[in-house]
Design brief:
alpha/beta, about 30% helix, 12 helices, Rossmann fold, eight-stranded mixed β-sheet
Length: about 350
């Protein structure tokens, strides 16, 4: 028997995923942190660079493919999800990542985002949410809060904002998570979880735009206030927050309420997070924009469902097994034909 040489998996470093392009975001932009954590995580994922594709639409976030030393497309406004779907279906072995923003992915591209999530194609979506249009210089976006004063809403926005997490849950997404640009270790963990999920992963990342919407998430990042305003989710763990974790979330007749751990309540009264519970995940998603509850970060929902691309491959294999590989020429000349004289 001939000797079989063992091929060692190539080891990458962060620099291997750093392109030679100058990064062109405003100094201090939260996009820098997201890029840095992505470049740190990818060497550990065990994927060759030539099997990775980053696809973006239009917006500040959409410069991302230039800065990753992988394959990539900088496509057209709102259509990254559609193009990524074609890439994944054509070559299911690729690791496909969509980088989009609250404008690109939820406004002109909202319909594509919905149907990508519904189909559950094995694609990873990273949605940067700064609640403003940054590239076009400070108009309100689909996620801007009611009353937001911007260049396009000088008297305050009248629109009720889209909540990316509830949108994803409503579209039957199989993986829904959130992180914050300042929490770098947490973001790394969420990127890794997104990669491991089989199906469409949806990761919303709160991202500060210091030029047009500075401090939008200050309550979640400032040392003095973040403990009371961030609910860090861990599967199988009680939903605790606040200084020294003295506050918790409790169900009261299926209605969530905040309790204080002490004389009246103990940790046993606190709701346990379950990533596979749609009701709990939907409740948590709706905490956003409600000042009385902390904003959840972490994995809200994760279930294992066969992906769309798996079904496509199976369907093609079954068709070939039943009918053979076929012929393009025969296909083009099959069916009804007409001769025009």
């Amino acid at each position: 028997m001939a000797d079989v040489k063992k091929v060692e998996k190539k080891k990458y470093s962060r620099m291997d995923f750093t392109s030679d392009q100058s990064v062109r975001w405003c100094p201090g932009c939260g996009d820098y942190a997201i890029l840095a954590q992505t470049q740190k995580v990818f060497p550990e994922l065990g994927i060759d660079r030539e099997n990775i594709v980053f696809i973006s639409g239009i917006g500040c976030s959409s410069r991302f493919p230039y800065y990753m030393n992988t394959y990539g497309f900088h496509t057209i406004h709102g259509r990254a999800a559609a193009i990524a779907s074609g890439v994944k279906i054509a070559n299911p072995e690729l690791s496909v990542w969509v980088v989009t923003g609250d404008g690109d992915g939820l406004s002109i591209g909202g319909n594509h985002t919905i149907h990508l999530l519904r189909r559950n194609i094995n694609i990873n979506v990273m949605l940067f949410n700064n609640r403003i249009y940054g590239l076009t210089k400070g108009q309100y976006s689909p996620t801007s809060e009611v009353g937001k004063i911007t260049k396009s809403t000088p008297f305050g926005s009248l629109d009720r904002p889209f909540n990316p997490l509830t949108l994803a849950m409503g579209a039957q997404a199989t993986f829904v998570a959130r992180s914050v640009d300042r929490d770098t270790k947490h973001m790394q963990a969420m990127i890794e979880r997104s990669h491991k999920h089989k199906g469409t992963s949806f990761l919303e990342i709160y991202q500060n735009c210091l030029i047009f919407n500075d401090g939008a998430f200050a309550s979640m990042t400032n040392k003095e206030s973040k403990a009371d305003n961030v609910l860090r989710l861990e599967h199988g763990q009680p939903m605790l927050f606040g200084k020294e974790n003295k506050k918790g979330i409790k169900f009261n007749d299926n209605i969530p309420e905040i309790i204080e751990i002490g004389n009246k309540y103990s940790i046993d009264d606190v709701l346990i997070h379950n990533e596979q519970d749609y009701v709990i995940a939907s409740m948590l998603a709706n905490f956003t924009y409600l000042d009385i509850f902390p904003d959840p970060v972490g994995v809200l929902y994760a279930i294992d469902v066969p992906s769309y691309d798996e079904h496509v491959v199976q369907q093609i294999d079954e068709a070939i097994g039943h009918h053979g590989t076929g012929s393009i020429k025969e296909l083009l000349n099959s069916g009804n034909t007409w001769i025009v004289e």
